[in-house]
Amino acid sequence: MGKGGAGLKSPASFAKALERGDRRALSQAITLVESARPDHQEIARELLSIIPVARSETLRIGITGPPGAGKSTLIERLGGKLIEGGEDVAVLTVDPSSQLSGGSILGDKTRMPILSSSDHAFVRPSPSSGVEGGVGRFTREAVMLCEACGFNRVIVETVGVGQSELRVAQLTDIFILLLAPAAGDELQGIKRGVMELADLIFVTKCDGDLVDAAHRAVGESLAGTGLMQPRIPGWTVPVIATSALHDIGIDQATTEINRCHDVLMLNNELESRRKHQLKSALMQALHDGLFDEFMADPEVLVRVNQASDQVAKRQLTPSFAAKQLLQSFLKENREAP
Prior knowledge:
By secondary structure, the protein is α/β, with parallel strands linked by helices. It is 52% helix and 11% strand.
């Protein structure tokens, strides 16, 4: 993978640079996609329209798990194994945004130093900016750009479990849930819907004093998934004990990821999921666009702040206040000349 990226201005020049595997151009392109500047947005829109459609050989992997499950460490190991198998790996890490500064709290090079320095890997952190679901608003577009740059395995690491993880599953082909050894307690706190979304479950930190607890967690997870219908026809959700620190279960985990990809392609489920991803992306873009349009109106902002105060004082319920704001906004726009 190249590192050039200099002198890029037009969408066509970006597209050619991505085709060459130019990682600096990839970073710049993702920055354009995430930018709020209208000129950047215009270049990004055109670029996304001319890059090639992802092939079935590419694989989008979503990885989620509660805090302390060791997501970054495991991704380092998995990414390394995939690279050993001849793959080029991109990792889109979604750092939790600071609620005070709005900035990203963590950094890619401190969390995944080996992948960050590999010629066959690309690691890009993006702040979640408070977006529900633990993914950035433009994560899907970043995935497309990584694939256009030649990365055939794209891993999306999410903030954590407990939010609307459906959004993560809607933009990836395979959804992996990580659990720490204290799974008995963790499973109680994880929504059933998140378990139902998982195509694979990896129990982490199976080493030292936690080996017995990790194996108990595997058994409990198997019992839980046995009561659920897998999302992939003919697929049984594997539960694997792993230790990124001691390289335990990583080969098996990598094998199961590849086997899941094979099953997806064999029964045409991958194409079905990609179509569903596009439909979900359309609905999300409409949702985001309407919200932006709504909040861009200065008068609306004043009313939102007023309604927020009323809700805080329990003078209005949130749902009723929202309905009033929307009705007022729609009425004014219908009456506008």
